[in-house]
Backbone:
């Protein structure tokens, strides 16, 4: 199977690995076409109709780009201590593609507003469903690009749990800072949705993620390597965080956005015991997430 090239409005031509193409063609990934990235925000910004589908592809692309840039710098330094393999780059690409598979209707509205009201006291995050769906996908597609240990690593990149734990957490912690960076929140997931959301909402921003990718490097701290940036990148990263602040102030936390999302959540709550879902037509909407892998 050959690679494919798609044209993205934010990043231009994106070349997709054959494994990514097979994942995209699954029902689990295709459902993302119907899940709005910004929930009820389109009632404030009519252009905010983009979905988790294109965001996932963009995140996959940036994860690959940053991984390859770090790989190239390690090779140039001829380090005996560090290495990023092509297999790890592919795992990053797939993890970026699959990191949002578990989102419910209207994205965060489902887990942050509807689920908490429908199931008080229970804890669930969309990453939990993403991990289950990744496992479900690899059980049905035919591929020989990644082995079982690499599939486990992909799931661990999406969310770190005891079941998915791999040795790379200790030996290569910087790989876990590419897609979802718990250390400082600078990661490619945010780089894509900051750029994509601003573009679709018609908001201006100054952050240049291409610059950050090119200047990123690995620095050893307390015996472990982490992704770092030179001092000259200070103002660009400041613009990144200011972009986040602007999006929250003008879009994500807009009073109309929140009011609309509260009404949608109330509608879901009222429908919860009336609408029945697969697999046996007897399950309420509030436990729909349990069957997302089907």
Residues:
């Amino acid at each position: 199977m050959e690679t494919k090239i798609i044209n993205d409005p934010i990043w231009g031509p994106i070349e997709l690995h054959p494994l990514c193409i097979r994942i995209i063609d699954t029902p689990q990934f295709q459902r993302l076409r119907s899940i709005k990235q910004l929930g009820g925000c389109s009632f404030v910004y009519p252009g905010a109709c983009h979905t988790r589908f294109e965001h996932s592809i963009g995140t996959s692309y940036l994860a690959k780009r940053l991984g390859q840039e770090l790989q190239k710098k390690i090779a140039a330094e001829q380090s005996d201590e560090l290495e990023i393999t092509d297999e790890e780059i592919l795992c990053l690409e797939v993890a970026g593609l699959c990191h949002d598979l578990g989102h419910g209707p209207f994205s965060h509205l489902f887990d942050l507003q509807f689920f908490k009201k429908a199931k008080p006291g229970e804890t669930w995050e969309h990453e939990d469903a993403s991990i289950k769906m990744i496992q479900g996908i690899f059980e049905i597609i035919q591929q020989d690009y990644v082995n079982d240990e690499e599939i486990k690593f992909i799931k661990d990149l999406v969310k770190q749990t005891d079941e998915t734990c791999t040795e790379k957490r200790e030996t290569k912690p910087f790989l876990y800072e590419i897609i979802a960076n718990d250390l400082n929140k600078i990661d490619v997931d945010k780089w894509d949705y900051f750029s994509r959301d601003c573009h679709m909402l018609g908001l201006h921003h100054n952050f240049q993620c291409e610059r950050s990718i090119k200047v990123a490097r690995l620095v050893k701290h307390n015996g472990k390597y982490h992704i770092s940036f030179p001092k000259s990148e200070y103002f660009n990263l400041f613009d990144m965080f200011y972009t986040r602040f602007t999006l929250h102030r003008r879009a994500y936390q807009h009073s109309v956005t929140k009011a609309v999302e509260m009404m949608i959540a109330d509608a879901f709550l009222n429908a919860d015991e009336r609408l029945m879902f697969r697999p046996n037509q007897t399950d309420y909407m509030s436990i729909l997430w349990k069957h997302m892998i089907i």
Notes: The chain has a mean pLDDT of 89. The chain has one domain: 8-291.
